[in-house]
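User: I would dearly like some help making sense of a protein record. This is the protein in question:
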Amino acid sequence: MLFLLSCTGKFPCAPGQLLAEDGTCLDAEETPSDTAPLDTADTDDTSDTAIPPSLTILAPAPATELFLGTRYDLIALAPDAEAAEATITGATGTCAPLTDGILHCGLLAESAGSVQITVLASSGGVSNTASLTIPAREAIGVVPRGDQFALGMYEVMSEDWFPPVADAGFELAQSYGTGGYTHDDWEGWAAKSGMQTMARTSWSWSDPWGEPYTDAELAEVAKYPQIAWWELPDNAVGDDSYVDEVAALIARIRKVDDRPVYMYLWTSITTEQIEAYVPHLDLIAPGAYPEHACQPQPWIRWRITSAVEAVTNQGYTTADKPVIGLADLYGQPDAGCEAAELAQVRMNPLAQMAAGADGVLYFAWWYAANVLEQEWGELALETGNLITGEAGIGEAVLHGASLGDLGVAVLSGPELSESFMPYGTFETIQYPSIHAAAWDHAGTRYVIAVNYTDSAVEARIDGFPARTPGVEIVGEEKTVMPKNGSITTSFEPWGAHVYRVPIADVP
């Protein structure tokens, strides 16, 4: 190493030169690269200046549109920050402390307009900010022409029955017209409660196909703004023999109104028979309550997937013609069939959603009010809140990106469900005991998992994000952490869980 000294006029080197150890003078620019001038310790040196921490807002994505009443996840990644906080306007926001470089907040939009988000991350006395503006609006209408998952209740047949059903998040109401009230009365009760309706094409329960409304009467019914769907009579439609009658009645409706047409398809109808109705109907709605079909619970999965198959076989998608499942809320068996169990009131609609349904209708509130124990109706309303409440389950199923079925490993309990043979087929079907399906929506992964057996089951479910602030078990006040993208969970007989997982993986 050469030691250099600064030279002045009284030294042998000229000003601006440095005296080398060997006695020669060197210009400053000729100083060897492995030398350094003396007395540099006190000069300005910014090499140790603090660098602002990195910060990325992962969710919501800039293209996301927030619906009022739904809770969304705000995820910001600040891996080298000591602290982070979010300022949110246009929505209520609750944030957890920065953990493992993840800032996680919940957003609930309060009014239509926009939500402004600013995240501040700090470390070592310096900070970094990131901002995002997201539009927010009210969800309008139900599928197939609206934004909302179709959740409905059959036989809401009294004015005082509407408020509790509406308060539980049910958007659609149906009536067969029995009980002495008029169609006008009933539509008025629905409008007052804020519910939409399935408007029948006849108010006659005894002979709905034989006594349909006239063209003039259909035009009068079409004036009700709260109608979401036209409901065709379902009596005697257990096969494809009513295709011509269905087509003719729809043609008469189309003369006065263009809103979607719905018809319940009996549980015994085959996939091929459903296909005959697909070109005419806007919504494909097979009965999916096993007690009516004398089938075990896993038949629900086959019933919904067979309806989806019928839609695709006819060249449509379920976005064009959504599949709507009918769930059991009457608990009464047909001759020779087993009665429903209470747990299936919750499990049944969630199983339908996991299988591909874009809507669920319960049959029927009349039974909950007049026949069943109070807890049956209470569980139905609780399940409705689970689906269309602020957790956003129904919204994710409808608008999210489907990830399909997740991998499941049974750790204890039966690995397979009961086998069955659907009506009109000669094929024995048996599914795994646990069915889990997932959707990604607005920075959150949603998982529905159901137990198709009458036994307790412990299982490992794969497909969860490797990096996340935690997995919420919706409605159960529990949070678990995945390990290597999997969680271990337990199911009661006929049990069902819904998981909500903020995604913090870097895209």
